[in-house]
Amino acid sequence: MDFKSLVENAQDLMFRYSFQPKQGFEYVNSAAKAITGYTPEEFYADPCIEYRLVHSKVRFLLEDLVEAPATKNNSLVLPWVHKNGSLVWVEQKVTPIYDEEDNLIAVEGVVRDITRWKQAEEELQLQRSYFETLFDESPLVMAILNEEGKIIKVNKNFQNTFKYKESEAKDNFLRELIVPKDEVEKSQQLFNKILKNKMVNEETVRKRKDGSEIEVSIIGTPIEFNDRKSRICIIYKDITERKKDERQIKYLSFHDELTGLYNRVYFERELELANSQQHIPLSLIVADVNNLKLVNDVFGHGKGDELLKIVAKILKESCRENDIVVRWGGDEFIILLPNTTKNQVELVVKRIKENIPKYEEVEGPFTEISIALGYVTKESPIRNIDKIMAKAEDRMYRNKLRGSKSTKSSIISSLETTLLEKNYETKEHADRLEKISMKMGKYLGLSNNQLDNLDLLARLHDIGKVAISDEILMKPAKLTEEEWERIKMHPEIGCRIANSLAELTPIANIILSHHERWDGTGYPQRLKGENIPLLARIIAICDAYDVMTNERPYKTAMSHQTAITELKECAESQFDPELVKVFIELFDNQSKLKAL
């Protein structure tokens, strides 16, 4: 079936509405008739038909959406008015279409009929509210029956629970009022047991007057009044919430709490079932989240958890309904694919890779989600499943190792880009700092290895700021003491980042020290004099000079000579006095700096 046929036969209403050159519907599929009562031709003939469809009370939402469709896939839940006057609840998503000059020329949209879902949601909310009220007032319900099973009396809680007034319940068979059809036979057996002077204690389901059902525990016992006639007392307790909790406990016993995926216990149970002739060929995918430790170390485990949940969504979305997606533990996932050939599992792996970009809006500096994958197919029932799993895991680790270098380089590049975005620093500042510091490093006779580290340091000495919120970094007003303490953490955060990446490990301790002062009053270690790494002392002088001589949003630029004077005054307190002399010898006038 071609794409056009798929769209035309879709159950959702799909449309394109143009604003230029002519306002009106360009396309509406045939689902319009089923959802709205209007044919596509009626949409084409009336550009304003959607305003008649949308209920008047919420029409302003649609108008706002059309006037300012700021983002893709805006989604609204709206009441529409069917051609026959009935109310139809829909979920409407629209995507703005712009021309090359960024003018809005059209919107494309999908409209789904969610009336049943809306009604079910409203009903569920009403029932939940009702249950909570009942629980607060009393969970116990009582009814007195005669030997035939007819109701003699019910208490107030019975009326509240089953929604029968006493006048409606009296003289009726209990089973006809509150016992579901599929429970009638069992209910009669319990009743007969009580008639034989036996107490019953059971858990079952009962129905209310409106037909809705509740889970209850039942205690039934024979009683005898003064008239010597036998009576039966039935005591109910609403256990709906308890049963819900039991189901939740059962759910949690087989599911990972963080991601909602199946857990290792469930996987091992299912693996036994799947490892049989009827499920051959059986495929396995092992997936490992790259750089989770880095995210945890730098941004905290909350961000690491977010990353794991996103990866879980990617894997779940990429798999078929009967595939079993499992969080194996830590950063590792396993997917069990019964009746899946090698070619089919390769398609699943391909979908995983294709779906990753959809979820790359992760908070923090990482614009790429990286997952190492390994997969294998068991085509014979006699092959050992443990060896199959080991093979898939081995392939995953090989792929992880193969992609490690490019992933690390990508992260470094991403960190640098994020640093520029989050700070007042510009690329021009980074470039100037690199040139000034390298000139100074060469003049001092640093080795090639030291120069390489100095080059990295010039670009990444403030890398720890990627973990500081924009509100603090870009705050125009004076920082609070708490905010300033947070800012002062960036050397330590930067050191942790560098230690997590092999390429940056050599400069980790220098990043930690770049805010130390010659007199020992800096931070975070209060190092003094030559205990401060040489490269950190160089960067401190070069960075201070460039900041002073270039305009910022919060200050005007100093002249070259004023900045030199400031460096001299801060020698022996903030800066290494000998290195300040070297800087002045190198750049005694501004023309030498401009020549870089």
Automatic annotation (TrEMBL):
Residues 280-412 form the GGDEF domain. Residues 74-126 form the PAC domain. Residues 1-73, 127-198 form the PAS domain. Residues 404-596 form the HD-GYP domain. NCBIfam families: GGDEF (TIGR00254), sensory_box (TIGR00229). This is PAS domain S-box-containing protein/diguanylate cyclase (GGDEF) domain-containing protein.
